[in-house]
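Question (not urgent): is this output format expected?
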Amino acid sequence: MDSASSKTYDFKESFETEKPIKKTGLALFSIGLLVLLVSATGFTNEKPLLFFLLSIGLATVGGFFYLVPHFREKPEGIKNNGIFFASMTSKGTLAWIVGILITGFYILLYWFPEFLQNWIKLVDPLSLFLRNSVADQWFLYGTFYTLAVLVMGTRMIIRYRHNNYQILRTSSVMFFQLGFAFLIPGILKSLNQPDFYFTYFWPLRPYSLYPSDIQNLLSHEGGLGVFMVFWGIVMTFVATPILTYFYGKRWYCSWVCGCGGLAETLGDPYRQLSDKSLKAWKIERVMIYSILVFVVLTTSLLWLNFSFGGEILGNLSANFQSTYGFLIGSAFSGVIGVGFYPIMGSRVWCRFGCPMAAILGILQKYFSRFRITTNGSQCISCGNCSTYCEMGIDVRLYAQRQENILRASCVGCGICAAVCPRGVLKLENGK
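Got this back:
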């Protein structure tokens, strides 16, 4: 009895100690967000560094302050208490408001960047320091994107801190986003080199193998442009099939890709919203492979037209390129892919649109050693695995049938195994 009382007292004392820290974090975040909103009016343009620190800086610090006390939570484990009752995580009013705001930001970013000029000026000091040039809308986006992955990645590590696989996987996507998708492109630009993204390649970044982009890279003095072309070709046609054979599509979708990194960090609170119905699966297969065919056809037409000096197809290949860029590269991957997190779950783009995921899925299903294996005799049909599968897979059905999970859409995130109370699921690389 004394022991139980002591534990209760310790918990209460810990809670009271951590409460001021969380309040401080929430206050800093709120102040930073308020200053960021005010800066949209242009009020802060004369002192961009000061207001960058007071807005984005304070909001980021506040986010970390709010999360840190959770390290001391006991007992350890994944806590989903009330997740289907909270407005933010159950398609409630707050979720719709957030979804509309994110969608609106993407629409402005892609098609009306003039409305974001005051925010763009706000990140000028960081852009000048890193890239030796003033910011544009894409640097603003990259800054927001990277900070979201870092802050929410910290949340992910805290949330799954008892699971080494999740800690390593989340640390990996944070590392690749910060280093390879933000810092290295900026440094390259400061050296008057192409701001190349080494973690994106064809077909997810289709223009990396377009003739115009290859010509542009090869035209740069020195060997860096040649290396970038070589890197893109090797990663597309050599490294991708080899790595997928050994590790499945998880090596990219859950460990490297920036799209997957944002989905796994910022999108983690919404993973349970993915549609698990048979109808959704049928739509998924039609859409994702149709987009893959579209990008293959577009790339082929561009190269065919280039080979004949533009005399065979005329503007046809260019029309394919612009259509793909607008519908898929902008509207789907950005506006819908992220803006719909609070309504359709975190992997909308990865599940229904990403051509890279389509290729990796085919390789994984038919040629890879990677499988999520099941021990159905231990399954108690709690449904946690299916509920928190962001790719809309009914994992429980596979477990009950004692079948390995062979769905091409599986990104190997391992959350199904993490939330299973019986150890039914295991991520394995068999022969």
